Amino acid sequence: MAYSFDEIAKLDPYGTGRGEKAELYARVLSELTSSHYARCAGYRKILDAFGCDPRPTRSAEAQFMLPVGVFKTNELSSVPGSEILKTMTSSGTSGQAVSKIFLDRENVRAQTRALASIISSFIGNKRLPLIMLDTALVSTDRSMFSARGAGIVGFSTFGRDVFFALDENMRPDVDAARAFVEKHRSERILLFGYTYMIWRHVVRELAETGRSLGIRDGVLFHIGGWKKLKDEAVDRGAFNGAVRETIGDVRVHNYYGMAEQLGSVFVECEHGNMHCSVYSDVIIRRHRDFSAAPSGERGIVELLSLLPTSYPGHVLLTEDEGEILGEDDCPCGRLGKYFRLHGRVRGAEVRGCSDTYEYRRAG
Amino acid sequence: MIAITNLEKYKNCFIEAFALSEADVESLKYQGIQEWDSVGHMALMALLEDNFEIMLDTDDIIDFASFEKGVEILLKYEVVIR
Asked: What is the structure's pLDDT at A145?
């Protein structure tokens, strides 16, 4: 039977161990590879150029990796134009070329469900009062709609009585925010924002005036690059500490994900480890020969996701560097691999198919 | 005074959320019209919660994919649309 997201939709996102997951990934990723090969001309061309036979079932490690930059130079869609519901665009960090991701109804649904199942496993299925550490403009003005706005609208599913903490000039409205916190003082408050914007427009602004939002019980999810923070010598510990000083008693969950793999995000647990869910997995590749590196060795991050059915984004080589810390044995109890990121790949940029590893050797 | 039925209230939420002039809302589906996108969806959810004084669970917000499906979901909250 052909793979459908429904077979994994009801699983505990952190309840699938190593052996079972390896089997699931070999089967589903192989199916996705042959299905995208049949339906997406651009993808077929790339695989043919590398002499990759899309038919056999292969392990996750032996799947053909598509460099994520390919989505900036090629329009890769596996569904007819009439079935495309949404085209997501993202500029990445370099800001010039834009990735285009084509989503059909099925894919939009799968990604929404996967994200909900991941986030709900941290906060429960009841929606919490939500503070967006951003301006309302990005999500209400459809003409400004971007990956940033989409992230905010997507996350608002988990909240209620949504309050935007920044005004149109990106300045925090501290009095209104404190009033919101007071109104919900007996409840847990959910917060969402982009890492650098939280730092620049909330934490630093509040720290300068010595004020705090005074949250007594909060959970913050934040996403986005650390590059600018690194330039300011702010690491995870400093960020989380400053958040607690200026926002209040909040549990901080950084998370990581690609616009090219919406939904299957990686969330940091209570112990500071980024976790793969059942919807996604990570392989670390050595710079030298793109072979898979064991735990504890740094390399290029390859991301696997079972969600992309309308575009060939199921096996992506990113431009990020990271290391696997372990699998199925994090003290938080979640199963799956857990890892740490080390920023962008240094030196030569990984881009274009010419930089992918030699497929035949690995296949 | 004539009491407004739940069905009318329910329809009005769609009309208001998507700024529709026509009242033919029964065949509406998520992403079926331009206005019912993810932004419109959250506006609709907020209106339903206010009008029926309920709080929808995350799963139900995601499952709320059509006018028809919504009727089924609201039943779980003891709101009978008729």
From this structure: 54
A116 touches chain B (CB under 8 A): yes
Give, rounded to a whole angstrom, the gap between the first and last alpha carbons of chain A: 25
Radius of gyration, alpha carbons of chain A: 20
Ordered by where they begin, the domains of chain B are 6-75 (1.10.1200.10)
Beta carbons of A156 and B42 less than 8 Å apart = yes
Task: Pick A153's closest partner by Cβ from B42, B56, B58.
Answer: B42
Q: Measuring CA to CA, how many Å separate A40 from each of A45, A50, A74, A316? A: 9, 16, 11, 16
Going by C-alpha positions, the residue among A265, A300, A340, A255 that lies closest to residue A65 is A300
Helices and strands in chain B: count of H runs, count of E runs:
4, 0
pLDDT in tens, B11-64: 999 999 999 987 689 999 998 898 998 889 999 999 999 999 999 999 899 899
Cα distance between residue A263 and residue A211, in whole Å: 35
Quote the minimal CA–CA distance from B62 to chain A in Å: 7
Residue B69 dihedral angles phi and psi, to the nearest 5°: -60, -35
DSSP type of residue A258: -
ipTM rounded to 2 decimals: 0.81
The H or E element spanning position A250 is strand A248-256
Question: Which segments of chain A have a pLDDT < 70?
Answer: 1, 91-96, 139-146, 347-363
Give contacts of A 148-167 with B, CB under 8 A: 150, 153-154, 156-158, 160
Which residue from A183, A181, A184, A182 is spatially nearest to A133, judged by alpha carbons?
A: A181
Sketch the domain layout of chain A as residue ranges.
6-81+276-362, 126-256
**The CATH homologous superfamily of the domain defined by A6-81+276-362:** Luciferase; Domain 3 (2.30.38.10)
Whole-structure pTM value: 0.89
- Residue A1 CA, distance from chain mean position: 29
